[in-house]
Amino acid sequence: MSFTSDLKSLLPEIEPKNRREFLVKNLAAGFALAVQPICGQTTITTDTNGLTAGEVRIPVKDGVIPGYRACPAKGHGFPIALVVQEIFGVHEHIKDICRRLAHAGYCAVAPELFAREGDVSKMTDVNQIVTQVVSKVPDAQVMTDLDAAANWAAKAAHGDIGRIAIVGFCWGGRIVWLYAVHNPKLRAGAAWYGRLEGDTNELTPKNPLDFVGALRAPIIGFYGGKDTGIPEQSIDKMRAALKVVGDPSQINVYPEAQHGFNADYRPSYDKDAAQDAWKKMLAWFKKYGA
Predict the structure, then answer these.
(1) Domain harbouring 201, CATH code
(2) Which of 142, 194, 203, 279 matches a 20 to 30 Å C-alpha distance to 178?
(3) What's the structural domain count of the chain?
(4) Which candidate in 170, 182, 264, 270 is catalytic?
(5) Mean confidence (pLDDT) of the chain
């Protein structure tokens, strides 16, 4: 049994008739309530000049989920960049990430991966977001939703299905590692401070560390040395495991950075680390043909 089929088999198949009605039909306007007040003096707002950008509808196997798309307004055959949200959903920061990638030549799409479970943008308490929504999102569901987003980008947004990259932050950083196991068409990925190990359950049965040796695409990881939620020991384990199997993936640690150091709308933002990591990410994608 392959690692990919293993990931799928560990999760129950949920038929459409057993699904709840999709709770999120439209994306949040602005920033999620849980991150208010935002740090306006550092918040980056990327323009849409020369882009096609806005909210879209992405067909999935059991309905339609909202998403945000940004891509160059002219041309076709753009590499596809899947953007995976933090726990705060596809709010303004994630939309801006899409626009930044579009200005770099990508067809960037961020599907709202919590659409079935709840609208996190209207929740003010992080613990409520995690316990009532995020903890109920199955890994297998996320994998197929990302596949659907890539297929949508290829059919509706002039993307090249043969050149897929993925970037994710926080919760989405963990998903990047898993998607590199799942999709053989993936060229490269960038995991920003995504958890590498931790508790597992029926919906999230394995951690990135469990899949070392099965990655189908090289991942570049960006982590903060002062991130209290991802200990240095986890990063050391991942580096050692990657080295043992000869995987080209690499992990960069910024010693003075905290968790969320790319989140320019939050106090954790570290401009130097964020800008350096962004340049490294784009170079990584180019190196591996995405």
Answers:
(1) 3.40.50.1820
(2) 279
(3) 1
(4) 170
(5) 93
